[in-house]
Amino acid sequence: MYYVLKKQQMHKDGWLKVVTKKFPVSGLTWEVIGEAMGADEVLQPRRTTRNIGVRELHEEDFMSEDDTKEELLSPLMAFLARSGSSVSVP
């Protein structure tokens, strides 16, 4: 049991040494290099563009039911007027 714990401790210490290792030429650590390259941003959750802007709705953006009927029926009424037919719209 002691051997296993000791071996795990050695692996943990070895990993920490690799992570905090400085490069001999530049003297930079992996942490500094990661920050400069934006590695932390890669690990952050993505934000979609759908969440960025919320469009405000105004009443004039919507048409009333009467306006909609008139707009939909106006080409039909113009056609019927040209053809000589008479139809009443409720």
TrEMBL record:
UniProt protein name: Uncharacterized protein
The organism of origin for this protein: Rhododendron simsii
